[in-house]
Amino acid sequence: MKELLAKIREEGQVIDEHILKVDAFLNHQIDPVLMQKIGEAFARYFNKKAVTKIVTLESSGIAPAVMAGLALGVPVVFARKKQSLTLKKNILTTTVYSYTKQEQSDIFISKKFIHPKEQVLIIDDFLARGEAAIGLTRLVQAAQAEVVGIGIVIEKSFQEGRQKLIDLGLDVYSLARIQSLKNNKVAFYESEEA
Ligand code: G4P
Ligand code: NA
Ligand code: NA
Q1: Where, by residue number, does the polypeptide cross the bilayer (predicted)?
Q2: How confident is the model at residue 100, as a pLDDT?
Q3: Distance from the CA of 3 to the center of ligand 3, in angstroms?
Q4: Measuring CA to CA, how many Å separate 106 from each of 19, 113, 135, 182?
Q5: How far apart are CA 186 and CA 126, in angstroms?
Q6: Model-level pTM?
Q7: Which atom of ligand 1 is least distant from the CA of 181?
């Protein structure tokens, strides 16, 4: 998606070979116009599937997920990272390990928001090792619903997440695919630079 690539070039900051900071438009400040285009791009690709719901993980997945939900006309559920006082019964939960943060955390979704046989599109801001997307997939499947695709805003293609998801038979669609962050430079897949 060319507007996203341009934004990453202009405002992304390479922290090291593994981490790209995008707090100017995605992880802290949010660019609503770009986010709407992101939602529409996901909708164009996943329109062929009969998506009934979008599932994401708080907090940075919410903005692109809501825009995709708006474009597809379906509700959006975000898995929570802290079990709220009002979310004690009838929850689905799983443990996700974050390599970036070097810690395990539990994520929660209320059963009442994912029904058996639903066709769920999972959206997230980053794909690194795939832990979050695989954790969300486990929750959806535990609800006896089906994951029809994974939509990612920024994929770090030099990490193994994409391959792990494909090995699970999932349809992965990433709007920006980063081949390398070496030498303080963002290199996209060549097909995307065109
Ligand atoms: P994984 O799910 O693909 O295995 O990734 P990982 O555990 O490494 O990700 C942990 C957190 O770090 C996630 O945010 C993820 O979005 C973020 N992250 C991973 N790689 C990058 C990167 O290169 N740049 C930035 N900016 N973030 C990255 P989170 O903890 O869920 O936080 P939130 O922002 O959603 O609140
Ligand atoms: Na994040
Ligand atoms: Na995230």
Answers
A1: 61-79
A2: 81
A3: 20
A4: 23, 18, 9, 32
A5: 15
A6: 0.96
A7: 23
